[in-house]
Amino acid sequence: MIRKRIWLFILLSCLTLPAVVINCAQPASQEAPPGPHENVRLPQAGAGDIYDLTYLVHEDPAKVDNSNLPITPVERLSLTGKPPKEVDIDKYRLTVSGLVGNTLDLTYDELLSLPSVTKVVLLICHDSHVDNARWKGVPVSYLLDRAAVPADASEVTFIAMDRYSRTLPIEVARGDGTFVAYEVNGVPIPLKHGYPLRLVVKDLYGENWVKWLRQIDVE
């Protein structure tokens, strides 16, 4: 009887020991990895390095919070259009004309001396490319006020040296995010990116960002 009890104890020990060992060997459960910041749109797999924002090419710029997106280096800014071979900055003028009480004919140096804003603005060219850079320039609203634009004006057309143009409602032209930029990321805008002046229009697609700007015509 005693032998049977001993053998029964040994048998039960053999059956339960592996289960105990297995349970002890299991690692403690790990916390789930932190999710992305609520303001960041993470790139799709294989999208490239941190400056590759092409995963946003189908987005509406007015609906993307760019406050935590990387600043696109100047050398990584997208290239569009055909720049002039050169710009004689001593002869250059930005003209504000049309339905105005005071036509402006501003030199580049005069523009640099005017009140300015600096903003990080997201540029999306639909189905093409995306840049997120820090632009500095003169608010269009300031230029319109200085040109004494009347209250019944409705549209503003921005014209480039190559005659490319875009027409915006005057409410958009006067918006806080619409300005004539002469710097990008702290340096003068390179010729291939719009030097001497490039229109910046927050929340609108890149085709409205007129490069090589030479004239603002009010209607």
Protein described:
This protein has 219 residues and is α+β, with helices and mostly antiparallel strands. The protein has a domain at 87-121 and 131-218: Sulfite Oxidase, Chain A, domain 2 (Alpha-Beta Complex), CATH 3.90.420. The protein contains four helices and ten strands. It has helices at 2-25, 108-112, 140-146, 170-173; strands spanning 94-98, 104-106, 117-125, 129-139, 155-160, 165-169, 178-184, 187-188, 198-201, 213-218. The strands form two sheets. It has a five-stranded mixed β-sheet. Strands 3, 4, 7, 8 and 9 form a five-stranded antiparallel β-sheet that branches. A hairpin with a 3-residue loop joins strand 3 (117-125) and strand 4 (129-139).
Oligomer: single chain
Number of helices: 4
Q: In CATH, what is the homologous superfamily of the domain at 87-121 and 131-218?
A: Oxidoreductase, molybdopterin-binding domain
Biggest sheet layout: 5 strands, mixed
End-to-end span in angstroms? 112 Å
CATH hierarchy, class of the domain at 87-121 and 131-218: Alpha Beta
What's the CATH architecture name of the domain at 87-121 and 131-218?
Answer: Alpha-Beta Complex
Structural class: alpha+beta
Note the overall shape.
Answer: globular
User: What proportion of the residues is helical, as a percent range?
Assistant: 10-25%
The averaged pLDDT comes out at: 85
Number-wise, the strands total: 10
Strand content: 25-35%
